[in-house]
UniProtKB/TrEMBL annotation:
Subcellular location: Cell membrane
Organism field: Lelliottia wanjuensis
Record Pfam families: MFS_1
Transmembrane spans: 37-56, 68-88, 100-120, 132-153, 165-186, 198-217, 264-281, 287-305, 317-337, 343-361, 382-404, 410-427
CDD domains documented for this protein: MFS_ShiA_like (cd17369)
Keywords on record: Cell membrane, Membrane, Transmembrane, Transmembrane helix, Transport
Predominant cellular place of this UniProt entry's protein: membrane
Any coiled-coil regions, as ranges: none
Protein name as catalogued: MFS transporter
Sequence ranges assigned to domain Major facilitator superfamily (MFS) profile in this UniProt record: 25-435
One GO MF term: transmembrane transporter activity
GO annotation, cellular component aspect: plasma membrane
Length: 439
């Protein structure tokens, strides 16, 4: 670990650029990441609202169709490690920039096609099969996206402000969610019949515009300086994945564990909460409104957490998020169950900008410092995306299954606590490498 930290210190300092270039990278990272995650989050919202009855119309219990829709959601997460391996390989051996354009193109195309799909009543079993295939391709694209966007900032930022600058990339995640939630909030205002027949398609079809803007942005960014400086000095790894498994297994496990509470909490808070609200008779519009406002607050709070990590270190800030999740796991659902908008809003503000924000704001630095430059894209992407399978992928599906089995929220709260405890163990095994990297 100490060797990796030393290398990170050298390559980060060497990769520092002037303020103007950093501003360009920040804008490209935030906007590109926001557009990418807008596409990805659309599926999660649609799975909670419309995909069950339209693509998985089974049985008399609407939760069964929703469970199957979330199974398709999980397929995307299963595909994400594949995307991390493939695009991480390209990013480590050839070009970070080229990889980011490829992932955005794949995401934009698949999302647009989802908006054109016939439903089960029109083509039968081919409807859910087509949806799942497209969701799989979405997952492949997403699996290669995050690591590249993070590294463009992490490998170029001044060593003393890496937490602040890399937090900007995470603002794109929150921004993408806000855009997708706002789009569905607007189309939900349509009459029920119009919303179910064509209204839900509009946010997906808008991805063609998002794709064009995103590609333009990413074509105008520079290659990571740390990457270009390292390439002549280091032999290319033919298969970076094997290097990760052989030389950095502990770092990979640490990255996976750190991902669990951040990703699990986010998808349970803003995806499963919609299902839970419908189940207990609360207006889904109020939940979506509260989530959107909370994510808008998180959009800005992420910068605070990133800047704070530059002052006190990555681990203390990540601990704040993990401990906060342990404390909030049960009260979150108690507040939702009141049905009062003020309490629902409080639950979302504590869960997202505070607990989740502290983790997602520091996650880029704390994970990227685990791996050396020559395999950093692959290691970062693989750890991030394998962790996403067991949290964001299986989390909402497990939550729905637990709700069906126990008709209560307490098993879901326990699931969140398990995620947090595993991250706690990983944090205890990490040195204060952020502080070391700044010295």
């Amino acid at each position: 670990m100490s060797n990796v930290v030393t290398e990170n210190r050298v390559t980060t300092a060497a990769g520092g650029q002037d303020a103007q270039q950093m501003r360009k990278l920040v804008i490209a990272s935030v906007l590109g990441n926001a557009l990418e995650w807008y596409d990805f989050f659309l599926y999660g919202t649609a799975a909670a609202l419309v995909f069950g009855p339209l693509f998985f119309p089974v049985g008399g219990d609407p939760l069964q169709g929703t469970l199957l829709a979330f199974s398709g959601f999980a397929v995307g997460f299963l595909a994400r490690p594949l995307g991390g391996i493939v695009f991480g390989h390209i990013g480590d051996r050839y070009s970070r920039k080229m990889t980011l354009i490829m992932t955005l193109t794949l995401m934009g195309a698949t999302t647009f096609v989802i908006g054109l799909l016939p439903v089960y009543a029109q083509i039968g079993i081919w409807a859910p099969l087509s949806l799942i295939i497209l969701r799989f391709l979405q997952g492949v694209a997403s699996g290669g996206e995050w690591g590249g966007g993070v590294l463009m900032l992490s490998e170029n930022a001044p060593a003393s402000r890496r937490g602040y600058y890399t937090a900007w990339s995470q603002m794109g995640v929150s921004g993408g969610f806000v855009l997708s939630a706002f789009a569905f909030y607007l189309v939900q205002k349509l009459p029920e019949e119009d919303f179910m027949s064509w209204g839900w398609r509009v946010p997906f079809l808008l991805s063609i515009v998002i794709f064009l803007v995103g590609v333009y942005i990413r074509k105008n960014i520079r290659e990571s300086k740390a990457f270009t400086q390292a390439k002549p000095e280091e032999a290319h790894e033919k298969i970076p994945l094997l290097v990760i498994i052989r030389e950095h297994p502990k770092a990979l496990l640490q990255a996976i564990a750190l991902r669990l509470p951040e990703n699990g909490a986010s998808y349970i808070f803003f995806t499963f909460s919609v299902v839970y609200a419908k189940h207990i008779g609360i207006s889904t519009g109020e939940i979506i409104s509260a989530v959107t406002l909370a994510m808008l607050v998180e959009f800005f709070s992420i910068l605070f957490w990133g800047a704070l990590s530059d002052r006190i270190g990555l681990k203390p800030v990540y601990y704040i998020g993990v401990i906060g999740l342990l404390v909030m796991a049960f009260p979150f659902f108690w507040l939702l169950a009141t049905g009062t908008y003020g309490w629902i809003m409080l639950a979302m503000l504590l869960g997202l900008p505070f607990c989740h924000g502290a983790m997602i704001g520091t996650q880029p630095c704390i994970m990227s410092d685990l791996f050396p430059v020559r395999v950093r894209y692959s290691g970062l992407a693989l750890g991030h995306e394998v962790g996403s399978i067991f949290s964001g992928g299986l989390g909402p599906m497990l939550a729905v299954a637990l709700l069906m089995e126990f008709n209560a929220s307490w098993p879901v709260s326990l699931l969140l606590m398990v995620y947090a405890l595993l991250a706690w163990i990983a944090l205890r095994s990490l040195p204060n490498h952020n502080k070391e990297a700044q010295e």
